[in-house]
Amino acid sequence: MPELIAKTALDGQGALTLIGTTLAPVDLGIITSIAPFAGQVKAIDTALKPLGLSFPPPNTTAASGAARLVWTGPDQALLIGADAPDLGTAAATTDQSGGWSALRLSGARVADVMARLCPLDFRPSAFAPGQAARAQLGHMNAVFWAEKDALMILTFRSMAQTAWDECAHALTALAARAGA
Amino acid sequence: MRIAGKGLIDRDTQVSFRFNGTSYVGHRGDTLASALLANGLRVVGRSFKYHRPRGVLTAGSEEPNALVEIMEEGQQTPNTRATVQEIFDGLEARSQNHLGSLRWDLWSLNDLAAPFLSAGFYYKTFMWPRAFWEKLYEPAIRRAAGLGNLSPNADTAPYEKAWASCDLLVIGSGPTGLMAALTSARAGADVILAEEDFRMGGALLSADQVIDGQPALVWVEAALAELDSLPNVRLMTRTTVTGAYDSGVFGALERVGLHRAPDAHLPRECFWRITARRAILASGAMERPIAFPLNDRPGIMMASAVQSYLNRFGVATGRRVTLYANNDAARVTARQLMAAGVRVAAILDSRPDASAVEDCPVYLGAEVLETHGRHGLRAIQGRHTGGEFRLDTDCLAMSGGWNPTLHLTCHMNGRPKWSADLAAFVPSDGAVPGLVAAGAANGSFSTHGALSTGHAAAVQAMADLGLTAPDLALPTAEDAPYRLTPLWSVKGKHRAWLDFANDVTTKDITQAAQEGYTSVEHMKRYTTQGMAPDQGKNSNVAALALLADATGRGIPETGTTTFRPPFTPISIAALGAGGRGKTFAPQRFMTSDQASRDRGAPMIEAGLWYRPSYFPKHGETHWRDSCNREVSYVRNAVGVADVSTLGKIDIQGRDAARFLDLVYTNTFSTLPLNRVRYGLMLREDGLVLDDGTTARLGENHYLMTTTTAAAGLVMRHLDFVHQTHAADWDLRFISVTETWAQFAIAGPKARALLNSVLDQPLGDFPFMAVGPVTVGGVKARLFRISFSGEQGYEIAVPTRYGEALFRDLVARAETMGGGPYGMEALNVLRLEKGFITHAEIHGRTGAFDIGMDKMVSAKKDCIGKRMAMREGLNGPEREQLVGLRCKTEFGSGAHLFTQGTRVHRETGQGYVTSMCYSPTLGEWIGLAFVKNGRARHGEDLRLVDHMRNTDCLVTVCNPVFFDPEGGKLRA
Amino acid sequence: MRLTCPLCGPRDRREFYYYGAEDYLHRPAPDAPIEAWDDHLHLRTNLAGVIKDLWYHEGGCASWLLVTRNTITHEVLSVERVADRKGASA
């Protein structure tokens, strides 16, 4: 019998810290997509109650303990960090664990780094903790959400290296400005 | 030469740089132009067409003469404005546009040939002989005309792009911009203040003025200190707003590293896209030259530039300066020169009734008729109300009045309007939604006018945004009236230049008018006036005033040409930042990527994905050796391939089956549970969109597979069909491509290999079955499908286990006489079996063409059905999918002809879409589309490939070469 | 250029894929004459002025959008989700 060892896309990649800003890969663990069928949000909220969560409105995310729900599109959210409750026929669910690669960008210059990568305004005044967005990182479809002094960036697993390279490049160029 | 005690340069910091190979010293705060002038250099370049010596004309980005090449590490950046380029230690610049030295340019013979080189000369002079054009005229003209040279090397320096958002974008940081920024910043707005210069302050840096009873700079520094302290303000220097676009988007070019020695990570430039809810154009005004005879000599400059070099850079541009103007405002330059101890030879005022209060000779009603000094002005001749004069002078400061810098207001097709009072064009209201021009950019030329209109524009912008600007005392400043009498040109026996950059003279304009080019657009193109790097900033208004005069019209009727983005040139590298090399597109890697590379597999791109081409083994000298071996793994033992790149879409809901019936030509509502079916998808126009297999995992749960190439396309199509035609259906779908790593296991020993890894041995699992399995305790999905014609399976595990499973499967396969196979072998296997890919379903083929018209169900509607049935898509005239076989090599893309017919586009019978050498059949095989091909099996066609020089006979056959009955699939 | 996605808010044009005229929403009946299908797929009025066309928020929430805009002034007059239209489920 084979013994299958799990591996994340950025296995072995350490954090990069420059000008008080840190880019680091994050293993989000289990991820489930939840897509409520018409008229089923109430039933889903009931099922999510034990997790301390409810289905998120557009462009938002909420966390409770280790579990997080983030809106990812019309009638669609990702449940991260917790096993999905049994939703019966109220929602379509799929396992998305490992399908996404996550980067955490934190510190003083998050918005300036992101200004090189995405047209969205990621300054805290425009993208406060609790907000989420579907947008692109470079040319890659991505999911973003804001935490206190940090931004989470989810891209497809297969593009994890490009996502890392582009974020690291933007941060390095900013640091060169500061250093010059 | 420098003047002690003047200027804003840092006299304590010396900067050394080189120009044309000679070392010079300047100071921090100098531009290349100011440093060259301080060092007494007057000739800095040669003109475009006549190769006349030229000096610095302006002190801004509109400079038409002082264009230089900046040299660094194998790179040379041409047409850099010396008036914008800051000096730094190690800067290396050289003049451009001359053959031999700058002083003795051999091309200056053109100047003697000037009578033949006027507007449209190449249309007339070089008419014949025709053959001379390509070989002689054009190369010679191209070499002699034109500006700087590009480096032959690719630019590898870093560039950057970035986005910014704000409530208010203020363009320009002179008195107008600073006042607008202060007002709106205090109102709490999110403000960006963008300044082209490396220092904020605009005209106040150059004009020795008083604001609120103190030197203007005190007020500037206080304003900047306040703005800098506010969190809602972003100050951007060295940033030229280059364009105004739809929806409040502005383009801006920031010079990030051009004023420093190169650094590996520091961008040279950053191209910004700024989204602003409101914008204030506070870009000031540009002084305009006077087209008098021989007005292009080094030492003849704009009066405002002379003032700027004096006050900002502490440089006297001459020892005996003459002022030539048609307005009151320019007099300040003469007064300030005298105050600084520079001798003013005379003030020449074109107006007979102007005042004469200065402490120097003042000639009224004056005209300059001739100038002397080939490599720098020595003397001028002219006349005034009192007679003729000759003056020894080495610098002539000219001012023909001012043009508001309104270019951005024209970027969305707005036309400026003529102001007779100002003898200038002013912006039209609302030309760019959300943008207003204020200060000199809107024709308010006094400092008081700038401050008050900047303030008013900001108050209005704040009101638009729902913010209240706090009361703010307007600083006191000069409010001199702007008095001028238009003076566009002075007639004389010598040439008078309008467009210095393109060597266009007043004669060219009148000649264009005489030859019938009376429309301003025609005149521009015929004379090339306004088409140089400065885009006519110095010459447009005067040129059309002359055209108006020559055609007996007024200026408003003559109209203007359009100012389009960019305001100043933008390097392509900045526009394309982030799109070079591997940053051009994301790279997608499969979980097996490292394992494949470890085995030396060359990776090839498949869309954004990287897939192994083949897995070389020791002793193999050609990729086909490896490919043949890998094919034999699958045909004789077992092969393993990563097929994770195929799109996977999870579809659920009570209407999932109904939806699949709509998007596929065939029926999926009848697909039994735990079974897979091949499906064909059409576009609404009846041509094939994609194909793939879809599995039924539950009563209301399907898993669709798309091709690698069309995964995104199919998702978009499904979203479209869902949202437009089935929005209220009970249906949800999502991509799970990235969730599963999927491996094909194919060959006679496939089942044995599978059984060695599955936790439970495989029971009855017929062809086209699907079901859950476990591998080492990990939940997996198993599909019995084949893209090779052999007994085949695909096993999918969560991606985090992908690499481990791939390595394990490959190692086991090798112990069974098999191993991994790459894209080359995969292609051979599918061709032997006659399976199509997007080489065949390339957007021009219908279901009939690929022999799948029977798959379009007659019992139901589907996307594309009606149009697939249309006339012309279903008959013998269509090119139909066939197989080809041949004993010799041929290539895809080759064309096919009936033997004995002429090889011509019109006689073509079809073309080859895919080919390979089949080790199984021992010959070359391919797929092709041939007219009425299904009725022509057995016919020999002539194959012609002009690209590869192939001309041979091929035999048309059934496209399924291997196991046409499919017995092996089902084994 | 920017478009305001009803779900995601104002976004840069690069997030959107342009598809074509609103006509694509009005799929003829399966048995409609071939001319109706030809009109549906191929014939456009090509107005200068206010038009409605379809865009896909490909780089965002994957909504198909009906955009009303003026091709002369470039003004975007409205953006609505195709799925939310009245009678969308025709």
Report a brief summary of the structure:
The complex is a heterotrimer of chains A (180), B (971) and C (90). Chain A is α+β, with helices and mostly antiparallel strands.
Report on the architecture of this protein.
The complex is a heterotrimer of chains A (180), B (971) and C (90). With 180 residues, chain A is an alpha+beta fold. In chain A, 18% of the residues lie in helices and 36% in strands. Chain A has helices spanning 41-48, 110-114, 160-179; strands at residues 16-18, 21-26, 31-36, 61-64, 67-73, 76-80, 91-95, 100-107, 132-137, 140-147, 150-156. The longest helix of chain A has 20 residues, at 160-179. The mean pLDDT of chain A is 96. With 971 residues, chain B is of the alpha+beta class. In chain B, strands 8, 9, 12, 13, 14, 15 and 28 form a 7-stranded mixed beta sheet that branches. In chain B, strands 41-42-43-40-34-44 form a 6-stranded mixed beta sheet. In chain B, helix 5 (175-186) packs parallel to helix 6 (216-229) and helix 10 (506-514) packs across helix 12 (540-550). Helices cover 10% and strands 37% of the residues of chain C. Chain C has 1 helix and 6 strands, in the order E-E-E-H-E-E-E. In chain C, a hairpin with a 5-residue loop joins strand 5 and strand 6. The radius of gyration of chain C is 14 Å and the shape is globular. The mean pLDDT of chain C is 93. Chains A and B meet through strand 7 and helix 3 of A and strand 8, strand 31, strand 39 and helix 20 of B.
